[in-house]
């Protein structure tokens, strides 16, 4: 699932603005977290994040025959 690395997050709010499913929540310290129930893993927040704080889920590579 998508996840915010709060040690990288600068609290700009860009992820919240681009999320179409309103899945970003602000922590008490100003950083953000992702509500995994709402998140559809579209990746828009990761693309918008200026600090690279949002990680995409690991993609499992198909083994070629
Ligand atoms: S991956 Fe998409 S749905 Fe999930 S928090 Fe980011 S922008 Fe929202
Ligand atoms: S876009 Fe990135 S740096 Fe900005 S609040 Fe979201 S996670 Fe933090």
Q: If classified by CATH, what would the architecture be?
A: 2-Layer Sandwich
Low-confidence stretches: none
Estimated helix fraction: 10-25%
Count of β-strands = 4
Over all CA atoms, what is the radius of gyration? Answer: 13 Å
CATH class: Alpha Beta
Largest sheet geometry: 2 strands, antiparallel
The CATH topology, please? Alpha-Beta Plaits
The distinct bound ligands, ions and cofactors come out as: iron/sulfur cluster
User: How much of the sequence is in beta strands?
Assistant: 15-25%
Sequence of secondary-structure elements: EHEEHE
Mean pLDDT: 92
- What count of helical segments does DSSP give? 2
The secondary-structure class comes to alpha+beta
N→C terminal distance: 28 Å
Number of domains: 1
Taking strands numbered 1, 2, ... along the chain, how are they ordered across the largest sheet? 1-4
Comma- or semicolon-separated keywords:
binds iron/sulfur cluster, 15% strand, elongated, two-stranded antiparallel ribbon, single chain
Overview of the structural elements:
With 65 residues, this protein is α+β, with helices and mostly antiparallel strands. It has one domain: Alpha-Beta Plaits (2-Layer Sandwich), CATH 3.30.70. It is built from 2 helices and 4 strands. It has helices spanning 14-18, 44-48; strands at 3-4, 24-26, 32-34, 54-55. A hairpin with a 5-residue loop joins strand 2 (24-26) and strand 3. The longest helix has 5 residues, at 14-18. The chain is elongated, with a radius of gyration of 13 Å. The protein starts with a strand and ends in a 10-residue tail after the last strand. The model has no long low-confidence stretch (mean pLDDT 92). The protein binds iron/sulfur cluster (2 copies). One iron/sulfur cluster binds at residues 4, 9-15, 32, 48-51, 53-54.
């Amino acid at each position: 699932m998508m996840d915010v690395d709060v040690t990288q997050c600068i609290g700009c709010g860009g992820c919240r603005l681009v999320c179409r499913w309103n899945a970003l929540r602000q922590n008490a310290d100003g950083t953000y977290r992702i509500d995994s129930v709402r998140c559809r893993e579209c990746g828009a927040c990761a693309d918008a994040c200026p600090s690279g704080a949002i990680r995409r889920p690991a993609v499992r590579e198909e083994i070629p025959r």
